[in-house]
Amino acid sequence: MSDKGRPRSFDRADALMRAMKVFWEKGYEGASLTALTAAMGINAPSLYAAFGCKEALYLEAMELYAQTVGTEIWAALETAPTAREAVSQFLLATAEAYSQPDTPHGCLIALGGLHQAAIPEAVCEALTRHRKENIDKLRQRLEAAIAGGELPDGVDAGAVATFYATVQHGMSILARDGGSYEALKNVTDGAMAAWGVLAQGPARHRNARRA
Q1: Are 148 and 175 in contact (CB under 8 A)?
Q2: CA distances from 133 to 86, 194, 201 (A)
Q3: Is the pLDDT of residue 5 over 50?
Q4: pTM: predicted TM-score of the whole model, two decimal places
Q5: How far out from the chain centre does Cα 176 lie?
Q6: Using CA atoms, how far apart are residues 211 and 21, in angstroms rounded to an integer?
Q7: Segment 171-185 mean pLDDT
Q8: 132-175, pLDDT tens digit by residue?
Q9: Taking CA atoms, which of 8, 70, 108, 176 is between 20 and 30 Å from 24?
Q10: Contact (CB, 8 A) for 24 and 110
Q11: Which residues of 179-205 are buried (b: 16+ CB within 10 A; e: fewer)?
Q12: CB-based contacts of 109: which residues, under 8 Å, 6+ apart?
């Protein structure tokens, strides 16, 4: 008999949130169907009926993560008065968000599917797109600072944005390995020490190499 029109016996939004936490903790490959259904409180047929398949469930869970988790990390890019403060606050907020005791450490998007040969192409593409979008957010803030005269015209906004996004990815790995807030903050301090070279344009880079 068809189940069409029959109400679900579970809260779909809650089940998706629970699945997101499993993927966040275990990654795509490590999140087995058994672990997912146990966390969601449903059986496999219900999972397939509600979400389609593991791949579709992951993609939906990843979008939920992007919209609801760690949004405060990016707030400083819009509110901080200078680009330097924006990047510093971005990294400090990252350190705090990635080291919370009641959630998996690190970032689902940074850690969710690093072994591309073992995960579906659509998942790889979605993860890559989100990572590129994060770099774009940083680049746009830096470009605004260049346009406003805060940073020299010669600053490579894309290169600086990629550097600080890569620092954030490294912080995600450190957090997953048990790094404390203090350890992550130390990374932030070190990364911001590089600001004086990265954000001063080609002439400063040449002087730094000669030194």
Answers
A1: no
A2: 17, 23, 24
A3: no
A4: 0.86
A5: 13
A6: 48
A7: 96
A8: 999 999 999 999 999 999 999 999 999 999 999 999 999 999 99
A9: 8
A10: no
A11: bebeebbebbeebbeebeebbbbeebe
A12: 62, 65, 66, 127, 130, 131, 134
Residue type, 211: A
For residue 177, give the amino acid letter.
Answer: D
For residue 126, give every residue at least 6 positions away whose Cβ sits within 8 Å of its Cβ, in sequence order, or none: 59, 62
Q: What is the pLDDT of residue 196?
A: 86
Q: Which amino acid is at 173?
A: I
Given a cut of 50, whether residue 3 has pLDDT beyond it is no
Which stretches within the chain are classed as H helix?
12-30, 33-40, 44-51, 54-68, 71-79, 83-98, 108-111, 121-147, 157-176, 181-193, 195-198, 202-210
**Angle formed at CA 136 by CA 186 and CA 103, multiple of 5 degrees:** 50
For 209, the token pair is: 């190499």
Query: What is residue 16's predicted lDDT score, i.e. its pLDDT?
Result: 97
Backbone conformation region of residue 53, classed left if phi is above 0, alpha if psi is from -120 to 50, else beta: beta
Residues 10-21: what's their mean pLDDT?
A: 95
Q: Which two tokens stand for residue 21?
A: 């936490």
Integer distance in angstroms from the first to the last C-alpha of the chain? 78
